């Protein structure tokens, strides 16, 4: 079994070398994690060459080779991060199932909409996908991680859920990975909590892009240069967020809004019009639609 101590630096393997892999990888190396303790599996040769040249890590074309490493030269994987598209994750996991059962690393999935029960089922199955219905447990610890795209600029937020096989040391290993991409990260008590996180921070950057987009466009219509409008709107969003994070936890956001909203002033006029037009209700409805889609995706991808 792979090492399971938080005091040692884990060997981390990424299955999938896309943007989120790169965000985590870059963060790990910036904080001193050795490139010799990172391996990446990536099918596209151009991307393989880029990752090797940029980060000095071992990159494999085969998933099983990445998990096991070069015999006698690489340590076994302590953590395997699944960073592939949901549409192919079933095939990918079945393909490395026997290796995972043998080496038993911590598996961290950043694949949206795929439940732990399905990962367990795929891991129990044979590599060609014939599940053993008599098996009762995958025997491989699994964490679902919901990061978000601001991780790419070091401003991520994330939620995590661990199955019963995940030890305290492996939770620490998960946090070791996550803190390189997220400034705010939390464990949730149920797997459904991952869908809740998705509706807030997982999909949330798009909500704010929509607001910034609308503010930019209106500012241009009012006469501002587009570059000026964009940067003013973006910096205002960033500043407001920092004020929320810097405020005491027992101070609600409504009180911050009220502090900057003078009665019958300009801000009051804007906020009242937005409330009248149903902006808060629209945001809440959008978040609910996001969560509902998370649940339906889990049902869809579970059939793969």
UniProtKB/TrEMBL annotation:
Residues 194-295 form the Pyrroline-5-carboxylate reductase dimerisation domain. It comes from the Eukaryota. SUPFAM superfamilies: 6-phosphogluconate dehydrogenase C-terminal domain-like, NAD(P)-binding Rossmann-fold domains. Coiled coil: none annotated. Residues 12-113 form the Pyrroline-5-carboxylate reductase catalytic N-terminal domain. GO terms for molecular function: pyrroline-5-carboxylate reductase activity. Belongs to the pyrroline-5-carboxylate reductase family. This is Pyrroline-5-carboxylate reductase. It comes from Coemansia thaxteri.
């Amino acid at each position: 079994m792979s090492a399971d101590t938080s005091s040692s630096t884990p060997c981390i393997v990424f299955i999938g070398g896309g943007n989120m892999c790169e965000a985590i990888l870059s963060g790990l190396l910036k904080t001193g994690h050795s490139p010799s303790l990172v391996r990446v599996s990536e099918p596209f040769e151009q991307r393989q060459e880029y990752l090797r040249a940029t980060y000095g890590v071992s990159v494999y074309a085969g998933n099983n080779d990445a998990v096991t490493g070069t015999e006698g030269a690489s340590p076994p994987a302590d953590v395997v991060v699944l960073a592939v598209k949901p549409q192919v994750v079933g095939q990918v996991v079945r393909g490395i199932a026997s290796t995972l059962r043998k080496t038993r690393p911590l598996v961290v999935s950043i694949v949206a909409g795929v439940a732990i029960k399905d990962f367990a089922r795929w891991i129990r199955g044979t590599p060609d996908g014939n599940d053993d219905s008599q098996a009762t447990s995958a025997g491989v610890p699994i964490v679902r991680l919901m990061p978000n795209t601001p991780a790419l600029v070091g401003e991520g937020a994330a939620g995590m859920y661990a199955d019963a096989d995940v030890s305290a040391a492996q939770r620490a290993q998960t946090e070791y990975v996550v803190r390189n991409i997220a400034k705010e990260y939390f464990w949730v008590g149920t797997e459904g909590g991952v869908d809740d996180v998705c509706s807030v921070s997982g999909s949330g950057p798009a909500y704010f892009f929509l607001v910034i987009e609308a503010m930019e466009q209106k500012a241009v219509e009012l006469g501002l240069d587009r570059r000026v409008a964009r940067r003013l709107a973006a910096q205002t969003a960033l500043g407001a967020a920092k004020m929320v994070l810097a405020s005491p936890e027992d101070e609600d956001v409504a009180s911050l809004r009220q502090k900057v909203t003078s009665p019958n002033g300009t801000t009051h006029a804007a906020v009242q019009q937005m409330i009248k037009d149903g902006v808060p209700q629209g945001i809440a409805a959008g978040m609910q639609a996001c969560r509902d889609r998370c649940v339906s995706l889990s049902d869809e991808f579970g059939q793969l």
